[in-house]
């Protein structure tokens, strides 16, 4: 007879290994489900983006140009079709680089007076 092949998978057959395996499974399953849902949603978005852009270009929808400070929108305007929106982005970028705002400045506020006694 030849050498014996071990029948154990190396995972352990004792109760402690079973408890550790269950804890890891409980932690691993929600992460995998979340990752799967995020991947499916991202795939759907990537499949839809070309059709949405093509639809906007072909149907002549108005494009909006937005100015942001970080993630906060500061100002937006309708720029027209695809070509006009590209020109508007360039013009707005030039105005911002010159240190000016592309939007009209707000009217001056009246001075606030504090009542005296």
Automatic annotation (TrEMBL):
Residues 98-117 are annotated as: Disordered. The keyword Membrane applies. The chain crosses the membrane at residues 20-53. It comes from the Bacteria. Residues 103-117 have a biased composition (Pro residues). This is Uncharacterized protein. Keywords: Membrane, Transmembrane, Transmembrane helix.
């Amino acid at each position: 007879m030849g050498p014996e092949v071990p029948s154990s998978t190396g995972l352990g057959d004792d109760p402690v290994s079973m408890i550790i395996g269950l804890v890891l499974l409980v932690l691993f399953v929600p992460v995998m489900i979340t990752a799967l849902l995020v991947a499916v949603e991202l795939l759907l978005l990537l499949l839809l983006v070309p059709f949405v852009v093509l639809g906007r270009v072909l149907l002549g929808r108005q494009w909006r140009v937005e100015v942001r400070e970080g993630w906060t929108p500061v100002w937006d305007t309708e720029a027209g079709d695809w070509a006009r929106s590209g020109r508007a982005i360039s013009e707005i970028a030039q105005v911002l680089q010159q240190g000016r705002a592309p939007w009209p400045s707000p009217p001056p506020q009246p001075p606030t007076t504090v009542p005296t006694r």
